[in-house]
Amino acid sequence: MGMGFRLKKHLVIIMIFIIWSIGSIFKWWNPYILPSPKEVIISAGELIKSGALIKHIAISTLRVLEGFFITICLAIPLGILFGVNKSIYDYFKNLLGFLRHTPPLSLVPLLILWFGIGEKSKIIIIVLASFFPVLLNTISGVEGCSKKLIEVGQTFNLSKINIFKKIIIPWALPNILVGMRLGIGYSWRAIIGAEMVAASSGLGYLILDGQQLSRSAVVIVGILSIGILGTVCDWIFGLLTNKFNYAQEVNNNEGV
């Protein structure tokens, strides 16, 4: 059953690959538009051998991690503050609502004017893209903390700091991880867009360069690289989220 479930999850991907391979062999489409899997594998091998693919992956990953780290340092403390103190949150609600609905990539031209085409503008784009999923899920997690747990803590004369550390934060952690899981995905989308507009390195630049040189196989290698990296990040946060969700369910079932 386990094997069947794993196969089921990958069935659509396998079918797409088979259709892609057969279509390339029988020339159902122009190979200039969509090269064969063999050509893509050859291009990937050449890029790996030259070190170009590894370099672009490393640069994009570093940018994403740097921006996402800043997001965590800003969004989680603010989310906890807003979740604990709704009156403070009310002051910022309209501003945050406006910024949340502003696409980060629409700010690229302005950020380039302010900060140039260096790293700062790209990092800011990542922060803006990943900030709100982390912030809003943190607020939701803190606000949703079980009142019964807090009452139990008060019964045992726990201080406010201990209630915060031992009850509120552990309870909110699954929500925070969900926000981080969403945020890391938004970070990858944002950095690729930013690198296509203003960069001389990174996977976004690799894709744009491949398009300008009419090397569609290189474009696909870049796209697949992004997909794989994003999937790995999502898988890691998925494991963490499931682990803490399970712990929370155990507490709920025990009537805590």
Fold and architecture overview:
This protein is an all-alpha fold and 256 residues long. The chain has a single domain (36-245), classed as MetI-like fold (Orthogonal Bundle). Helices cover 84% and strands 0% of the residues. It is built from ten helices and no strands. It has helices at 2-25, 37-50, 52-84, 86-100, 108-115, 119-143, 147-155, 160-197, 203-212, 216-253. Helix 3 packs antiparallel against helix 8 (160-197) and helix 3 packs across helix 9 (203-212). The longest helix has 38 residues, at 160-197. The mean pLDDT is 86.
CATH architecture: Orthogonal Bundle
Mean pLDDT over the residues:
86
Number of strands: 0
Instruction: Assign the CATH superfamily.
Output: MetI-like
The helix content is over 70%
Topology-level CATH name = MetI-like fold
Number of helices: 10
User: Could you tell me the radius of gyration in angstroms?
Assistant: 23 Å
Count up the domains.
1
Task: Please give the alpha-carbon distance between the first and last residues.
Answer: 34 Å
Uncertain parts: none
Name the overall outline: globular
Largest sheet: none
Return the CATH class.
Mainly Alpha
Proportion of residues in extended strands? under 5%
Helix/strand-derived category reads: mainly alpha
Order of helices and strands: HHHHHHHHHH
